[in-house]
Design goal:
Shape: globular
Helix content: 25-40%
Order of helices and strands: EHHEEHEHHHEEHHHEHEEEEHH
Number of strands: 11
Number of helices: 12
Structural class: alpha/beta
Radius of gyration: 23 Å
Distance between the termini: 24 Å
Length: 438
């Protein structure tokens, strides 16, 4: 959340494009001589092995090379092992557009461009419109939830609270915390109670309230949700508490804590045959770095360290020594937009096209997927005022959110043309509906 400065996550390494990048980023950051610069130093010496990557999709990869932010050595390793891919210059679009299209009519570009809330919604709903209430994850759940052995448990589970992404027509996301499930104080957990006590009296009274018939729709809906929560607690609590992992997740890392709970739920779902298809939601915030991007305790480097270490632990946990589901689990990122290439003095402002990561055993990794899966020609020109970006370096996306999301949805089993058209109404506007990264 906040708009990851993705152009400092993935950087051209070859001299010609690196020099363009560094100039557009207001020079390489130097606390003494260039405190306003946002550019990263080109890696040399031992840092090259920790940062450099080669795009397996590029026929001229000997010339066109890249490096990752020095805070992400784990992701460099996973990319070079073929498990991680980057989707380059993706963003919310109504249809593919050029600068001329953008200048011609506001109907050609998404509503409320550069707005955090609106662009977050458009990534989560995969539709560049306002007033949409459904998410593409939840609508995928609508399609495949009937195939899950246990239909009591929602196919969409959030470890990070309410979100639009997992809301479907008939799919309601189930929310738990990174600490697991929370029981009711002074009640029987799970029900029913045995014997007579103050606890059983309270529990009996609660069950009577939940079982009552209410004329008021709000009260009736509340009772149904409350009862569903109690039923799921009874289903999951004991088994989830007893599910252990062999992998050590980094402490003091909020994202790692969320992913650890996801890993336990996946392991439990496999062991108890709860589901064959599930979608989990986690989040990490604080990326809205209008200032302090290169300095401070929670600067961009610190956030990327948190991200890289958490994802690496999750990948390890999915391995054969633990959950044993690497080929069946795909993790991907969504961030509402990248940021301006040009510095505002100590940070960067809201951009548009961005870079997303996709990690998993089924991912065709070690590659960059740009502008519909094309080779190097799709990597954006980072010169300020180039034909594909605005004066401060806000990139016009070459890949629509629909294409990114539909690729993942098809891997999950959403292959019916009518289902894809329902979930992604603007997908037909784009040249390809599958980018091929998974």
């Amino acid at each position: 959340y906040g708009g990851n400065d993705a152009w400092n996550m993935l950087v051209p390494f070859d001299n010609t494009r690196y020099n363009t990048y560094a100039a557009s980023r207001s020079g390489v950051y130097d606390a003494t001589n260039n405190p306003g610069g946002l550019g990263l130093a080109q890696p040399t010496g031992s840092q090259v092995a920790l940062q450099k990557i080669v795009d397996g999709n590029d026929p001229d990869s000997a010339t066109n090379q890249y490096f990752l932010h020095p805070a992400m050595p784990e992701m460099t390793s996973l990319f070079n092992q073929g498990h991680l891919a980057f989707v380059v210059n993706a963003g919310s679009l109504v249809k593919p557009i050029t600068m001329a299209d953008y200048n011609a009519s506001s109907a050609n570009y998404p509503a409320q461009l550069f707005s955090h809330a609106d662009q977050t919604n458009q990534w989560q709903q995969a539709w560049a419109e306002q007033g949409v209430t459904l998410g593409w994850g939840g609508q995928c759940g609508d399609v495949f939830k009937s195939g899950n052995p246990n239909t009591q448990l929602s196919p969409c589970i959030s470890i990070a609270g309410a979100n639009r992404y997992e809301v479907g027509v008939g799919t309601i996301p189930y929310q738990i915390s990174s600490g697991g499930l929370t029981n009711l104080s002074g009640m029987c957990n799970p029900t029913p109670c045995t014997g007579v006590s103050s606890t059983s009296v309270r529990d009996t009274a609660l069950q009577a309230l939940l079982g009552d018939t209410y004329a008021n729709d709000f009260a009736s809906g509340y009772a149904q949700i409350f009862q569903r929560g109690r039923n799921l607690f009874n289903l999951l609590d004991t088994n989830l508490a007893g599910t252990t992992l062999n992998t050590a997740f980094p402490s003091g890392n909020s994202l790692a804590a969320q992913l650890q709970t996801v890993a336990k739920m996946i392991k439990l779902s496999m062991a108890q045959n709860y589901a064959t298809r599930q979608i989990y939601y986690v989040n990490l915030g604080s990326f809205d770095l209008h200032s302090g991007m290169m300095t401070g305790t929670n600067d961009h480097a610190a956030l990327l360290t948190t991200l890289s270490q958490a994802l690496n632990a999750f990948w390890t946990c999915m391995g054969p020594a633990d959950v044993n589901a690497q080929n069946n689990v795909t993790l991907f990122t969504m961030s509402e937009f990248a940021r301006t290439l040009q510095s505002n003095g100590s940070g960067s402002d809201h951009g548009w096209g961005t870079v997303q990561m996709v990690l998993g055993g089924a991912v065709k990794g070690g590659k960059l997927y740009s502008n519909g899966g094309g080779p190097i020609a799709g990597f954006p020109n980072q010169a300020l005022n180039a034909s594909n970006n605005f004066p401060r370096g806000q990139m016009i996306p070459g890949i629509g959110v629909e294409q990114y999301a539909a690729t993942l949805a098809q891997w999950m089993g959403i292959t019916s043309p009518s289902d894809l058209a329902t979930i992604f109404p603007n997908l037909a506007n784009f040249g390809t509906s599958n980018l091929g990264f998974v």
